[in-house]
Design a protein that fits this description.
It comes from Pristionchus mayeri. By secondary structure, the chain is α/β, with parallel strands linked by helices. It contains 13 helices and eight strands. It has two domains: about 280 residues, Rossmann fold, CATH 3.40.50; about 70 residues, no CATH class. Strand 5 and strand 6 form a beta hairpin. Helix 2 packs across helix 3 and helix 12 crosses helix 13.
């Protein structure tokens, strides 16, 4: 008996389920604080091997582990991409911030370690992989949208009361003690900055006695409230996440349509605010802080001739084997039919920096085009 035909039949359902495209955006790994966290802090810059703001060895390890996980998921479990880097398949984008660039390099080290003819030095399992960035002297509207000048967003934020206003009175004593211990005036406007203490703790730096577990929990909570408040409404989120959603929307559709320029994988190295904005824009946020090395993933699958989008959040980062959680776009199934995905996502997109600038100056790219149309009509009529 010939087993081959029945084997092929068995394989058929598998062959019908194909992964066509993936977009992955991660937050850089663990890092040093941006500056001395507070005047009386016993840990100055010499405590950080690469200096303020930079990735640490722990952070590099996290990103390397993410690269291993991506390697396994997209070159072994699914053979979406080749296990050696191929520029026709893969595009790597990073902000121009050093910790993001170094994070991208750390991911690439394990995702695309050289094999076979790509080994260029015996016993050295590393090869260079191109990483694109927007340039040091410009704000990156796609991957560092939180720095993009946006008056309409600023106006919206200053109109609100401070997110910690409601907890100010009940924490008055705490702020007084912090002022005494840190050597600086502490109030609701800066208390979330002490989040840097958690960076020190994550790197095993010894804390003074006044840094209790209770205090650390409070500071984490203050940080969570302040940070999520920057993105936690559809209107706020679109200013910061709309352009990236537009980019994903267009790349997913380019892959579905088999466009020549379409990549199989686009990988983005960025920052917590960028990931938070994306989660809130898509309506899938969990109101928590985005952990270091966390990744948001969109996959395009073709199953029996139909295209589906699946979203994942890999926010558990402790090991290369950590599983992601699946996210469900509001109004869609977990496996979201591409047409439905497009219908839900299109209104959230911004497709060009011009549209972003328009939204940021007027509050609505639609309104300003409408306005322009009226002017043109007026000019036409009055001639
Ligand atoms: C920084 O900290 C180290 C270790 O505590 C200390 O030896 C050094 O003098 C400090 N440097 C400055 C500039 O304060
Ligand atoms: C990860 O995200 C899921 C879904 O939002 C949430 O339930 C979980 O608490 C998060 N875990 C971490 C470590 O952030
Ligand atoms: C962005 O492009 C998509 C696809 O063409 C479209 O559906 C969407 O409305 C566009 N968004 C804006 C703000 O023009």
């Amino acid at each position: 008996m010939n087993l081959l035909p029945s084997l092929l039949l068995l394989l058929l359902p598998l062959a019908q389920c194909e992964l066509l495209f993936v977009a992955v955006i991660w937050r850089h790994g663990l890092r040093a604080p941006s500056r001395l966290p507070y005047p009386l802090d016993p840990h100055n810059e010499t405590a950080w091997q690469r200096g303020w703001k930079e990735l640490t060895n722990e952070g590099i390890k996290q990103m390397y582990d993410l690269g291993l996980w991506l390697h396994n998921r997209y070159t072994v479990e699914n053979t979406l991409i080749n296990s050696v880097f191929n520029k026709k398949e893969v595009l790597v984008l990073s902000t121009d911030v050093e910790r993001a660039l170094c994070s991208a390099q750390s991911v690439m080290a394990s995702l695309f370690a050289p094999e076979g003819e790509f080994v260029w030095k015996r016993g050295f399992a590393w090869q260079p992989v191109p990483i694109h960035s927007y340039g040091e002297d410009r704000t990156d509207p796609l991957l560092k949208p939180t720095d993009f000048p946006c008056p309409a967003y600023d106006k919206l934020m200053t109109a609100d009361t401070h997110p910690l206003q409601s907890v100010a009175e009940s924490n008055d004593q705490l702020f007084k003690e912090l002022t005494k211990n840190t050597g600086m005036e502490v109030n609701i406007k800066n208390v979330d900055d002490f989040y840097d203490i958690t960076r020190e703790m994550a790197h095993g730096l010894k804390q003074p006695d006044w840094v209790t577990d209770g205090l650390v929990d409070k500071i984490k909570e203050f940080k969570r409230i302040v940070r999520t408040n920057e993105f936690n409404s559809p209107v706020k989120a679109r200013f910061r996440g709309g352009y990236l959603v537009g980019d994903w929307h267009s790349r997913i559709n380019a892959a579905a349509n088999g466009e020549k320029k379409a990549k199989k994988a686009v990988l983005y190295s960025s920052h917590d605010g960028t990931l938070s904005a994306l989660l809130y824009t898509l309506g899938v946020a969990n109101d928590q802080l985005v952990p270091h090395a966390a990744a948001i993933i969109a996959e395009l699958h073709r199953e029996a001739g139909k295209d589906f989008v699946k979203l994942w959040y890999r926010n558990e980062t402790s090991a290369p084997t950590s599983d992601p959680v699946q996210l469900t776009l509001p109004g869609c199934e977990t496996s979201c039919h591409l047409a439905t995905f497009n219908a839900i996502v299109a209104p959230l997109t911004l497709n060009t920096t011009k549209q972003l600038e328009e939204l940021c100056s007027s509050g609505s790219p639609f309104l300003s085009s409408l306005f322009l149309a009226f002017i043109l009509l007026y000019v036409a009529i009055s001639r």
